[in-house]
Amino acid sequence: MITSERMAAVDANAAALGVPRKQLMESSGNAVAREVRALADPGASVELLCGRGNNGGDAFVAARFLSGYDVTVRLLGRPESIRTEIARENWAALGAAEIPTESVTDAADLALDDPDVIVDAMLGTGVAGALREPERTAARLANESDAAVVAVDVPSGIDADTGGPTGSSAGSGEPTGSGGSAVRVEADRVVTFHDEKPGLAALDADVTVADIGIPAAAERFTGPGDLLGLGRDPDSHKGENGEVLVIGGGPYTGAPALSARSALRAGADLVRVACPEAVAETVQGYSADLIVRGLSGDRIGPEHVDRALELAAGNDVVVLGPGLGDGDGATEFAREFLSRYAGRAVVDADALRVVPEVDTDAELICTPHQGELVGMGGETADDPEERAALVRSFADEVGHTLLVKGAVDAVSDGDAVRLNRTGNPGMTVGGTGDVLAGAVGALAAVTDAFHAAAAGAYVNGLAGDAAAAELGNGLVATDLIDRLPEATRDE
Ligand SMILES: NC(=O)C1=CN([C@@H]2O[C@H](COP(=O)(O)OP(=O)(O)OC[C@H]3O[C@@H](n4cnc5c(N)ncnc54)[C@H](O)[C@@H]3O)[C@@H](O)[C@H]2O)[C@H](O)CC1
Ligand SMILES: [K+]
After folding, report:
1. Which Pfam families match (predicted)?
2. Is any ligand 1 atom within 6 A of the Cβ of residue 52?
């Protein structure tokens, strides 16, 4: 099963792996044509109802694969209004190949000549709201005809994620808000691409999943698609893009500052640091962009839990551990803090060891390297696939998301697993783990824990690769921070 949102991410990842959308559309169109061939012999009449997006583009390709059939390609809209370049290219290819096309803009001009097969390629996953005209009328005509109806990717008017009508948030199959009942194509067959869609199972249609050549690596590994949708809403206000509290420092002062600055560069609006008073000035000295809150004394200990919880309450995410040290008081603090905190937290460094034993309502993203993973009671292996399986089962066991750092990072929430290949040996320098924890913290303020961990690993490695390209093995952790804004851009 794959949601529309994940499908878009995987699509972008495939393009980054050298399999561009045009190639995918070619395979999609081919798969649609195969379905038509299975339904009707050559000579049969096939009406392709095409929208102006890529769903329509799939049908332009299908028409090319249907030589021997009496094909009509009917575009709902003017050719100039075809929205994507690849769909336009495939439309142009029809003309060049002398495959008959028609374009209809007015619903009143729509009529179907009793075809044997109708291909519904009006709307796929790019639909917004209930069907408009002329799609609405075309859907009615398709439903009234005796033809076998083959839907491309998803029947037009159906939300692929819910199975309900498009434009209804309930997705329950109930009519949409504007009074009229929702029109949707009642398909006999659906050719859907790459993987099953959650909304198709309940439909009264035969569903075929067509492999369109998206490599498994596009799902298995992080890629640029994992950043889609993480960009800022242009209308947002200060604080809406994430408020992060870093709790750490004491024996080390650089670590919490690195995490905090990283969170800012990865997109958080406000980042606060709670650290011992004795080092507060030093931490503040690293950057005027940080809001530093002192906790009495020179080490964080259990006496600071109340204050830390108070500070945490105003934030979306806590990053716990950078520079905390492994003293008994710090460990006790981490244990008690987590047992009383119920929000979302990234846990790193010396705070990791308390995770397996602590009883917490918090949602944690733990960022151990192999050694720390073993320290937590987890297992590791040399083979990356085996290691990924172990990370998955350990995440399931502890009930939290794990991001296990290595040459290839492994991320799992106990269910899904994603691997990250960005990064380079130059990043074994001190502080890059603090940068990662901060970046994941910033992302966890705007998306779910698993997505934040995967995207955080990806951007951290990408920033490291950009730094290494310029500085080789001379890179330092702050070089990554400087390159995070570019690495996190989602276009
Ligand atoms: N990897 C993939 O996901 C692949 C997908 N393919 C196909 O592409 C479609 C999705 O294409 P997209 O261009 O994003 O959107 P649509 O074609 O579904 O439609 C967008 C288009 O339709 C118009 N529109 C939107 N809402 C309405 C409405 N309520 N009523 C009428 N018209 C509407 C508007 O103009 C939009 O721009 C996917 O389903 C697959 O079929 C591939 O080709 C292969 C890879
Ligand atoms: K469709």
Report:
1. Carb_kinase (PF01256), YjeF_N (PF03853)
2. yes
